Amino acid sequence: MKKLKIGFAPTRRSIFSAPDAIKFANLTRKKLDELNVDYVDINDINEEGLLYNEEDRIRVLEKFKKDNVKGLFIPHCNFGTEYIVSRLAKDLDVPVLLWGPLDERPEDNGVRLRDTQCGLFATGKVLRRFDVKFTYVSNCRLEDDIFKRGLFDFLAVCNVVDVFRNIRILQMGPRPFDFWSTMFNEGELLEKFNIQLAPVPLSELVNLTKKLKRTSKAKDMEQWYKEKMIINMNDDQLNTIAALTLAMEKLLENYHCNAGAVQCWNALQDELGIMPCAANAVLADKGYPIVCETDIHGAITSLLVEAATLDDTVSFFADWTVRHPDNPNGELLQHCGLWPISVAAEKPEITIPLAFEYPGSLKAKAKGGYLTLARFDGDHGEYSLLLGNAKVVEGPYTMGTYAWIEVENIKRLEAKIVEGPYIHHCTGIHKDVVPVLYESCKYIGIRPDLYDDNEEEIRAYLRGE
């Protein structure tokens, strides 16, 4: 699991107990250490290790920026100084987590030492005045499960936001002419979200592949394929796929990209005589999602869903294809054969895919379990993230990499896809990251679009219910 560095800025208000605030700040530090959270502390800023005045806020801001924190955690250790917190959050411009330890019973003389919940109310209002988006974990004890769950969900949200703000996609060739559905607006993606593309002509990929053929690295990669997969092609074709894998990885590194999209047919087949799907699958398992048909929005989706797992689970890129023949809420997720090996329930076979005459695609049934399915897309300047859950179910054999899945209401999902702004492509992952992605949308400026019609359940989960 990826570790993200966050800024830790516990706060207090002068009219409440400073010793009690110090006590709870230190208890929170201890808990973060127990959970192995990577955080930048402010205990060198002042003797108390607490944030409550402007002079210290400036020093904290400088320190957090220097250490490149990806999120800001602000425990309210008695009441909290809401305007100092809000100024820091506004200037730092990273996801913000509010939380405060549950207040104890008032003392016998009626004195209350902290009024933490009241401070959270105040800070929430001022953050909204500053137009700062924030997340909160319900007022609870450090030992409560809510605290740990909320903290790690927040770390995952920070990762989604950080990845989204630093997307650079290798675009290998234009979209196939027939795929008007994968059209995208490069200028708008850059202007709205700072999503950058590195377009390269297919000839650059083809020439590099030919250059790498029969090199020692290609031979090693060819042997790796033979060990991991059932091979249903000749040695020269397999060597070409091995070289293509190396070429794609080299271009990703050369252009400093974290994902790719390729025009997988049909010019590539004329030049190399193979399908690129197996190469896509191998690179996905290496941390580089590569999607088909130059679907840039699909590559963005894949990066987001993997980031929501703190990069500990690999996604797969799929078509919504046909309804299940027996299950009224069933659907076939399938693609020619680019799903990562880690997704397969069986040893994949490299062979000729459905509807094509060239080899290079995988054939394997996906492993079972529960999924998150998502799709980032937009038109007319409005972007949203379709997301929801599904479970893998039994179904008839079919070609390619595939999984039969069941959703709560297939007609509701179908209507969302047809009515848009989505298309027949989606990204799946074997983990429930719907709440993390839902919460992330507020920070990245897109609308979450839940096909399960369960928004209140997700909001309740995020509240700690």
Could you please describe the fold and organization of this structure?
This protein is an alpha/beta fold. It folds into 2 domains: 5-164, 3-Layer(aba) Sandwich (Rossmann fold), CATH 3.40.50.10940; 170-463, L-fucose Isomerase, Chain A, domain 2 (3-Layer(aba) Sandwich). Helices cover 40% and strands 20% of the residues. It has 15 helices and 19 strands. The chain has helices spanning 18-34, 54-66, 82-92, 116-129, 145-164, 186-193, 202-212, 216-228, 235-254, 267-272, 277-285, 296-307, 410-419, 434-444, 455-463, and strands at residues 5-8, 38-40, 72-75, 96-99, 135-136, 168-172, 196-200, 230-231, 259-262, 290-291, 315-323, 330-335, 349-351, 361-365, 370-379, 382-393, 401-406, 425-429, 447-450. The strands form 3 sheets. It has a 6-stranded antiparallel β-barrel. It is elongated. The mean pLDDT is 95.
Number of strands: 19
Roughly how many Å is the radius of gyration? Answer: 25 Å
Intertermini distance: 25 Å
What is the quaternary state of this protein? single chain
**How many domains make up the 3D coordinates?**
2
Spatially, the strands of the biggest sheet line up as: 11-12-17-16-15-18
Classify the secondary structure makeup into a structural class: alpha/beta
Give the C-level CATH assignment of the largest domain: Alpha Beta
